[in-house]
């Protein structure tokens, strides 16, 4: 149990070190503020110098890192404490995520869509507030435009993230220049009309179709893609029986292959034994042994004849047979030996 605890601790430390290494691999201008705890990644967004502070808790990477942006900005991913909280990489963060990739994706978002600095908002707040309300008590078109723009742009540009209320977004965005509006036609609507538009989804769709016909093309394209996906799904389902049949056929063929493989291995083993048995060197050695045995048998027949254990006729027949076999085997053994020596000299 103790050894397992030490192994788990060591594994966590190695993973923490690897995560810090990915931070330096995927990002430039990484500065270590406190070793293994806090790092700063500097970058440029919209002409402004920014820094993303990465704070690693004691349980990291089992817990999410804390990411703070400096200076303070207005962005759907950032809360009032300038902490990045709703970036996709952070929401889905696990111990197996790459810290470097997550930080790089956040910085890339800020570079592609430069956020507005809170200092810029504060500088123009006093002058803008005086013009927000007309003499008749109705909000100016600019305020209304920014109010609705905050609603629609948060849905269009940031995937519907709404960690702030609509009014908080409006307060931050109504100070932006007119040229940055995503829907300039909203400037023609009153505050009451904008509120009704916000409360009615059907009116929002009508407004988009009327003033932004391209959105209808997008809807049609999306509908076509959904229909195509449905057709592909149906086609895939229709091929399922055929696929199951092919799977069965393949399994049977695999069984045949397994049987043939077993036979091949058995035959290969038998072939190896026979090859060793009938190898030229083995044949030569066997001939040599048989020659010696035949010579000894002929000597034994001669001794039996001298001891008068055999008659002349039996002795002659047996002795001639043994000697003939002896000389035949000896000749073949010597001839095979010469052939093998010649092959050996030739490099075979």
From TrEMBL:
<dbReference type="GO" id="GO:0006612">
    <property type="term" value="P:protein targeting to membrane"/>
</dbReference>
<keyword id="KW-0967">Endosome</keyword>
<dbReference type="InterPro" id="IPR016135">
    <property type="entry name" value="UBQ-conjugating_enzyme/RWD"/>
</dbReference>
<dbReference type="Pfam" id="PF07200">
    <property type="entry name" value="Mod_r"/>
</dbReference>
<dbReference type="GO" id="GO:0031902">
    <property type="term" value="C:late endosome membrane"/>
</dbReference>
<keyword id="KW-0813">Transport</keyword>
<comment type="function">
    <text>Component of the ESCRT-I complex, a regulator of vesicular trafficking process. Required for the sorting of endocytic ubiquitinated cargos into multivesicular bodies. May be involved in cell growth and differentiation.</text>
</comment>
<dbReference type="GO" id="GO:0006623">
    <property type="term" value="P:protein targeting to vacuole"/>
</dbReference>
<dbReference type="InterPro" id="IPR009851">
    <property type="entry name" value="Mod_r"/>
</dbReference>
<feature type="domain" description="VPS37 C-terminal">
    <location>
        <begin position="261"/>
        <end position="348"/>
    </location>
</feature>
<dbReference type="GO" id="GO:0000813">
    <property type="term" value="C:ESCRT I complex"/>
</dbReference>
<keyword id="KW-0653">Protein transport</keyword>
<comment type="similarity">
    <text>Belongs to the VPS37 family.</text>
</comment>
<dbReference type="GO" id="GO:0043162">
    <property type="term" value="P:ubiquitin-dependent protein catabolic process via the multivesicular body sorting pathway"/>
</dbReference>
<protein>
    <recommendedName>
        <fullName>VPS37 C-terminal domain-containing protein</fullName>
    </recommendedName>
</protein>
<dbReference type="InterPro" id="IPR029012">
    <property type="entry name" value="Helix_hairpin_bin_sf"/>
</dbReference>
<dbReference type="InterPro" id="IPR037202">
    <property type="entry name" value="ESCRT_assembly_dom"/>
</dbReference>
